[in-house]
Amino acid sequence: MKQFIPCSHWGLGLRLATLCVAAAVSLNAQAGELKFEQVFNEKGEPRTLHYRAEFSSRGAKHQVEVWRDGDRRMKRRTDDAIEVYAFRKQGDAEFNLSILDMKKRIHTRIDRTNLYRIGNFTDWFDLAHGLKHPKGEYRLARVHAPDGAPQPIGSCQWFDLDQDNRTAHICWSAQSRIPLVIQAQGGEAVWRVTAMDWKPIPTKTFQVHDAGFIRNDANQDIESD
User: Which residues contact 149 (CB under 8 A, 6 or more apart)?
Assistant: First the structure.
């Protein structure tokens, strides 16, 4: 008998594993200002990328490790607690997710279309590049490194993304197409890449090991509602 796992359970795991800068902003974009997709995009990204990062969410510190195989396969492991695998055909907007709760031993499968149906607008760029596209108008500017910012692990360019009276300072790597550092307005580094390389990734990295897990097909559950 199939056991249905409420979406609130696996949705929490997805949010934790795909932490992005909250880029929904409400300031009016002025003529000549930078566009999000102009600065933050996958153009020229390396064929493969593997990195580790530290991030803060709701006052708690977390560790994440990411393997990215171009625009076809990705794996994220957060705190040795959540694993997210994403697969798609090259150039296709649709993708499939496998979300493993390593502690509760639950494997949930869901695709992009059904994420959208339940109001979760996570897209491939969000998953693979660590930044979520703004919803609405925004202000983005190229800046110098803010005071007190940690030293990035590699070369990157600083940008300010404004949200009302708040600003996120983002140091974007043009080489790896990820943020190496994100500093909140108060000075806290909420994201920092600590290691990265561009070596070929073994195929076995993207094999989902779920022996003994409860398997939950969220696609079937959503489509049957």
Answer: 158, 169, 171, 181, 183, 189
Report yes or no: 156 and 172 within 8 Å, Cβ to Cβ. yes
For the entire predicted model, the pTM comes to 0.84
The answer to whether position 66 is within a domain reads yes
**How does pLDDT run across 89-141, given as a tens digit for each residue?**
877 888 999 999 999 999 999 998 888 888 787 888 888 898 888 777 789 99
**What are the residues whose beta carbons fall under 8 Å from the beta carbon of 95, sequence distance 6 or more?**
86, 87, 88, 111, 112, 124, 127
Q: For strand 214-217 and strand 106-111, is the pairing parallel, antiparallel, or unpaired? A: parallel
Residue 153: CATH number of its domain: 2.50.20.10
CA nearest 137: which of 171, 166, 164?
A: 164
Phi/psi at 90 (nearest 5 deg)? -55, 125
pLDDT in tens, 2-15: 433 333 444 545 55
- Fill in the amino acid letter for 178: I
Residue 2 lies in a domain: no
